UniProtKB/TrEMBL annotation:
The lineage of its organism: Bacteria, Pseudomonadati, Pseudomonadota, Alphaproteobacteria, Hyphomicrobiales. It holds the Pfam family DLH. One of its GO terms (molecular function) is hydrolase activity. This is Prolyl oligopeptidase family serine peptidase. Residues 16-35 are annotated as: Disordered. It comes from Methylobacterium soli. Gene3D superfamilies: alpha/beta hydrolase.
Amino acid sequence: MARRSTLARIGQRSEILGTRRARMPPSPDPTGTRETVSCAGDALTIEVFALNHKDADTTPTIILLHDAHGAGPDRPVRTEAARLAAAGYRVVLPHYLERTGATRVGFSGIARHFGLWSEAIGAVIAHLRLANPARPLGLVGRSLGGALALAAAAETNGLAALVLRSAFLPPHLDGRRLDLPPVLALHGTRDVIVPPSHATNLAARVREAGGTCGVTLYETQAHTFDDATDADATARLLAFLAEHLRGAADRPAAAPPAS
């Protein structure tokens, strides 16, 4: 990951915020229904979270991508999945690290395996599209998961929304035109693992391509947010998804363009 020393000036929906409390859905039991999809001939686990186990064909779907610490039983991504399901979304949590036989990964493994994990996420998207081509689909990811979500969105047409927390810009996208769905990037200004310039540079490039990208910068936060900031970020994420992902579900259904 390239590190940049200064923040680009972004005029479109950029905010530098302190911490404030926000209202969120309660956290239900973070247990999903396990399924498998095929990826390069191997089985890949996904978990599906849906409110009261209801999963209507029109329910918008979020592919939620965890960070480098995986999707284990003690990981915050599971609570995040349950909260999104409580807000009325169908949430798919891929165990994409299985593609390389891991449950968590260190910095040294990210560049080596990024392509294989991207392949796994592509297989999940293809599986969901095959099952229901018209269901609105969005991507949400943090840190490594955010970078993988960004990479997937750059290769996939017809997505409704992309939300990134503390995500880095994948190096293979350098110099490429970024034709993306509406994007929301949430980042701490004190993040020394992934500097906030990744978020502001992303916003500039999305705008150059004619897209929209909102950026919220939290001035007291590092790579991981504290509880109050996490609550605010979740509230902003839900408002963004309500506008773009649920809004897509309210429009007349149409099959997505070929990826």
